[in-house]
Amino acid sequence: MKKIMLYAAVAAATMMIAACGTTQKTTTPTTTQQPAQVDTVAQVTPNSELLSIRELIDVFADEANADDAMAKYGYKVKKNYEVFRVDKYDKMYYKNCRLPKIITEGKYEDYPRALRKGISSYVAVQGSSMMLGVFNNNAYENLVAQVKMNGFHLDMEGNEDIYTDGKYYIACNKNYRTVRIQKVN
Fold first, then answer.
1. pLDDT at residue 1 is higher than 80
2. DSSP of 90-122, one letter per residue?
3. What is the pLDDT of residue 14?
4. Using an 8 Å Cβ cutoff, are 120 and 164 in contact?
5. How far, in Å, are 19, 100, 107, 151, 178 from residue 103 at the CA level?
6. Could you give the angle at which helices 66-73 and 53-61 cross, rounded to 10 degrees?
7. Closest CA to 89 of 129, 140, 135
8. Rounded distance, CA 168 to CA 99, Å?
9. 107: phi then psi, degrees, rounded to nearest 5
10. Each residue of 132-152: pLDDT tens digit?
11. Burial category of 21 from C-beta neighbours within 10 Å (exposed 0-12, middle 13-18, buried 19 and up)
């Protein structure tokens, strides 16, 4: 028993001596600061078959130029177009589309419908706003990239992502693939 106690005392003394002579290293977590995230705007080439965002802004600013700008891209026009019980437009420009079933004079079942040929699109003019609609995801993404490229920044995210440059609002609706412009009040 005395031997066990002696060995235990020697072991404890050895540990104490060893502990006193060593230095303990502690590590503290370091934080590295990440550079601020900068939104880079990719330069995109507007789709040659559609009205570009820059042209949409110009036409919206001076609607007198609308017919000429739309003719340049081959849009047809239908005046006093109403989507039955939904909305009424002064003019509906459409390209590579067919008009839906007419319910009564000037009142249609829905917005224009896409055809298989080319990129289908429409531009609805309604007094204080204009809406450009497409039926193709790539064409829609190109329009949104053009919005950002033209100096608009995201103002409000939601069902419609609303971008602004201080002068205009552009609402981009991914579900319907539409881009709607109106003036900031």
1. no
2. EEEEEESEE---EEETTEESSS-EE-SSS--EE
3. 56
4. no
5. 93, 9, 6, 41, 24
6. 150
7. 129
8. 30
9. -115, 125
10. 999 999 999 999 999 999 999
11. exposed
